[in-house]
Amino acid sequence: MTRVVDQHHAEVPLTLEGAPPKVLGVLDQGALWANLAVSLLGFSGALALVNAAQDAPLSLAAALTATVVGSLIGTVMVALSAIPGTQTGQPSMVLLRGLFGAKVSYVPTVLNVVQMLGWGAFELWVIAIGCQAIFGDAVPYAVWVIAAGVLTTVLTIWPLGAIRVLRRYVTIAVIISMAYFAWRFLGEAPPQSGGSWTGFGPAVDYVIALSVSWVPLAADFARHSRSSGAAFAGVVGGYTLAQVACLGLGIYAVALTGSGDVFPTFVAVPLGALFFGILILRETDQSFANVYSTTVSLQNFLPRVDRRVLSVIVGVITTLIAVWVSADTYASFLSVIGAVFVPMFAVLAVDYFVLGGRARWNTGEDAPSRWSMLIPWALGFVAYWLTTSAVTVAGWDSFWTGVRDSIGFERQPWMNGALGAFVVAALVTLLIGLLRGSRR
């Protein structure tokens, strides 16, 4: 009886030296990932999906198809990256010690901390903007950010408890809210006609980037999964269904407004403020996941430091960033994330699942450096920018246009940056593994 009570109230160990409790079943993880997929940024980001080709908006069929295809590709990547976390019991950045070595793993850890701080700030920003859509300017933006930051930090102190609350209470309220808005929008939106399939490739790139942005933190939660199958099913099932629903709802909201400023549209429908308020409150699970992942990533450097101390520090920094953050570069931020972490995942997947890495995976502080694994990661990063159609920062895009011209490479309309990066990184990793095996 005592063991059952402990399982129901188990929490993440305070340092890396503690054993992670295996308490999350498929429903726990399905609820977590479904809630992570329902993002207010996803609603407003539907405009970037529809206009992925800029001068050729997608048709409704093309946009929805791109959403399904991109979600499936991205979530399978996230789900596969979760499995090593379940099997080793280690969070994502500590898991990379087995791929790159303890010291070299600090490189992706730094990148992950930077991008998670950015994601966390974006989430606090969108929560504050959502609150202002309901209550107007009566309460200053900074006050909403600070309130959301405090709630986020509290959730990171009891992360497994937060997941249990999501499964038991929040998910039902979110489903009801989403269903209500779908009913209202489908009845009010103008007929969806016109558009083309020209921007299908860039749209799939965009949706994949939305999904694979979670690759660096999948193992942070899956390390507490009861089985690899539960972790995989929870990610693919929960995230795919919810992201398709979220982006689909966003597409209709964009159709009603003609712009990406869709929050007033949600609030304007009857009872909209109530149901939109539920979605805003739920958005704290996004900021929670990012702050928590930043915390356990820092434990790769500081394995014996209490995560609660790190959570408070990270929560404060994230909140301060959010007070001054600009959301203008959101789509660009997604592209950069995809370029960094898609090829890294490909290297991990091939080495762990194909080349027998699981049997020799060393996540200790003495794990030897494996510099050769940086080669496929770097080449995959290059392949992403050679094949992607994503538009980011003008100077960065013109640089890669110059690289294409200098080597005589012409990007074809069917090319996809995420898949290009994955294939190149995977094949180079496989080649390195085969060469290493032949030498032995």
From TrEMBL:
Major subcellular site: membrane
This protein's GO CC annotations: plasma membrane
Transmembrane segments: 32-52, 58-83, 104-135, 141-162, 169-187, 199-219, 231-256, 262-281, 309-327, 333-354, 374-394, 414-435
Stated family: Belongs to the purine-cytosine permease (2.A.39) family.
Any Pfam family the entry gives: Transp_cyt_pur
Topology class, membrane: Multi-pass membrane protein
GO molecular function, one term: cytosine transmembrane transporter activity
Keyword set, alphabetical order: Membrane, Transmembrane, Transmembrane helix
UniProt-listed InterPro entries: CodB, Pur-cyt_permease
Organism per entry: Nonomuraea soli
Official protein name in the record: Putative hydroxymethylpyrimidine transporter CytX
Location in or out of the cell: Membrane
